[in-house]
């Protein structure tokens, strides 16, 4: 009984109840909602959002926000694709370069807010517009296709009947949870 009270008393339990309620409502609304294919599609689509959310958690906990994160993700994704396709760069090197690029963009935004003193809304709104525009300019509004099996396997490879991005999201969520619970600096 104490165990049950402890679980119900946690903040996360209310989120769980809301998710279950949504699942129940949607299952009555559509007979296809609780199918294996739909659940897999939902989880796959939410995996990228989950990874981004883990990264945004510390910022939100500290009272900050970042409107530019989606545009930065899109920009660095296009840069990675172009480095592989147009520059013929090895995939691992392209990923490392774009991770560093994303980190530098974040550092620049943080510098503009914390050291220069510009309002975070203005900095991140400007970043949203800038990187959305740069993505369009760099790629001329075109999709990047035929990137090769190695690049495609990052998001399309399957292990135990589940696509890899779902495993990535689970890994990031677990690591983020452990770091937030065990590391005083991150709290």
TrEMBL record:
It is a multi-pass membrane protein. One of its GO terms (cellular component) is plasma membrane. The chain crosses the membrane at residues 12-33, 39-60, 67-84, 90-111, 118-138, 158-180. Pfam families: BPD_transp_2. Keywords: Cell membrane, Membrane, Transmembrane, Transmembrane helix. GO terms for molecular function: transmembrane transporter activity. Coiled coil: none annotated. InterPro entries: ABC_transp_permease (IPR001851). It is found in: Cell membrane. This is ABC transporter permease. It comes from marine sediment metagenome. The lineage of its organism: unclassified sequences, metagenomes, ecological metagenomes.
């Amino acid at each position: 009984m104490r165990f049950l009270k402890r679980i119900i008393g946690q903040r996360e339990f209310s989120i769980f109840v809301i998710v279950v309620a949504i699942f129940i409502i949607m299952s009555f609304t559509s007979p296809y909602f609780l199918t294996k294919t739909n659940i897999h599609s939902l989880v796959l689509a939410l995996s990228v959002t989950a990874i981004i959310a883990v990264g945004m958690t510390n910022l939100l906990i500290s009272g900050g926000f970042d409107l530019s994160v989606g545009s930065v993700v899109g920009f660095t994704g296009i840069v990675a694709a172009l480095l592989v396709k147009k520059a013929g760069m090895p995939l691992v090197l392209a990923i490392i370069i774009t991770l560093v690029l994303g980190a530098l963009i974040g550092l620049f935004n943080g510098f503009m807010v914390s050291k220069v003193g510009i309002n975070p809304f203005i900095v991140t709104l400007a970043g949203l517009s800038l990187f959305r525009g740069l993505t369009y300019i760099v790629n001329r509004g075109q999709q990047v296709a035929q990137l090769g099996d190695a690049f495609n396997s990052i998001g399309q490879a399957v292990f135990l009947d589940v696509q890899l991005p779902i495993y990535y999201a689970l890994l990031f969520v677990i690591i983020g949870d452990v770091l937030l619970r065990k590391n005083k600096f991150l709290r």
